[in-house]
Design goal:
mainly alpha, about 90% helix, flat
Length: about 150
């Protein structure tokens, strides 16, 4: 089963790589100016290119979800760790949303075509990204240091 899956996934990967390469070559040969001014050309090149990208993302997302569920079914002890991690991420999201605020006045919000809620959500996303970045750096440092002492 694993061998068949590997063959199919490699085949799909090569297919998507070939399609993306073809569309990029079509964009290069037609040029940016031709694409910008010709809606029919945009439809014939960019729409299939985007559809290919969407399909690839959907397949990757579906595979990630399916393999995660299968892995949790096979290893129930790891499933508990996964659910704890998801809960921590959700709590972190709630905390960052609660500390985020709108730092713009109404004039700036109108100029940016944004709302107070959108400003708060962007702030929360930035805080979340900063915290996850710090955690990633600390985990990398910990991994490197702990690897030195294990040898």
């Amino acid at each position: 089963m694993t061998k068949v899956f590997n063959i199919v996934s490699k085949g799909l990967s090569y297919l998507f790589i070939a399609l993306a390469t073809l569309f990029i070559i079509l964009v290069w040969t037609n040029g940016d100016d031709a694409l910008e001014g010709n809606l029919a050309l945009q439809d014939s090149i960019m729409n299939p290119f985007l559809i290919t990208a969407y399909v690839a993302i959907a397949i990757a997302t579906l595979a990630a979800v399916i393999f995660s569920i299968v892995n949790m079914a096979v290893n129930p002890k790891n499933a508990v760790k996964i659910f704890i991690t998801i809960a921590v991420l959700i709590v972190l999201g709630v905390v960052t949303y609660s500390i985020a605020g709108n730092n713009f006045d109404n004039v700036t919000l109108q100029r940016l075509n944004a709302t107070e809620e959108l400003s708060r959500e962007v702030g929360a996303a930035l805080y979340y990204t900063y915290i996850m970045g710090v955690i990633a750096v600390l985990a990398t440092i910990y991994s490197g240091v702990s690897g030195l002492f294990k040898k």
